[in-house]
Amino acid sequence: MNEFTADTDLINILCGNGFIETTPLRDAAKGKREFRLKKTSPRYIYFDYINIRIFDGRYQDDKITLSRDDVKAMIFYFICDRQDYKVVRPDGDFKFSEMPSAIATARNQLRLKEEFPRMRIPEAKIRRALAVFDSISIPG
Fold it and tell me: Residue 4 pairs with which residues in a beta bridge?
């Protein structure tokens, strides 16, 4: 399966990565769902019928279908330490379309650091962020 929608497959992946369902009763009655890592966290994934929306106290981005890389990037946004995440995306925001290039840029910075050892980058933070990203596995 290469694409995911707001259905049980994606719910199982989220729950398998530590998310809990925090859907209010009013939304549950309408068929909407909400998932967070912690019950009171301002960051959450919201299934608004067919739309998969990302919130961090405010709206971040949404899609109807997600690729495996989109799912991995979405989970990374939630489980990565915020300070480490900011070395990948300095503004701290999440955009599905910008995550592949942000991860590639972080990997490229480490390659450049090996070529030019005197180059100053937050190497430890980049390594930690990429280790988190690489540790996320999407079954199937």
Answer: 66
pLDDT tens digits in sequence order for the chain, 140 residues long: 589 999 999 999 999 999 999 999 999 999 999 999 999 999 999 999 999 999 998 999 999 999 999 999 999 999 999 999 999 999 999 999 999 999 999 999 999 999 999 989 999 999 999 999 999 999 86
- Residue 62: name the closest of 50, 76, 72 by CA: 50
47 within some domain = yes
Residue 52 resides in a domain: yes
C-alpha atoms less than 13 angstroms from C-alpha of 57 in its C-beta half-sphere: 3
Between CA 44 and CA 69 the distance in angstroms is 18
Note whether residue 140 is domain-resident: no
CB 2 within 8 A of CB 138: no
Q: How many domains does the chain have?
A: 1
Residue 39: inside a domain: yes
